[in-house]
Amino acid sequence: MLHHLLATMRSHDLYNTTLYPHSDRYRGVFGQLDVVFMNQRELERRGLRPSEHVDIAVLRRSMWRASSRAPCKSSARLNRCRRRRPCERRAPLVFYVR
To answer: Which domains does the chain have, with CATH numbers?
Structure first.
């Protein structure tokens, strides 16, 4: 099972204390928030495709070394990232490829 740590990101009108809009005009996402961004090189390196669904799990700091998943998990769609960062989402999460 593959796993990646995701970086926290914010842009323009996105903050931790507000409701997120369902669109992110800077990243070409409209009508949804369940998107994980990964650059093209990392997608190819991991054998993944844009729009492929992945499982997301939250890890507590104490679980990082144990590599075990917390009970909270969801699914998200992969999207190509225009930047060179390996992967990012709107919260610090770990995603697991199904």
So the answer is: 3-10+23-96 (2.40.40)
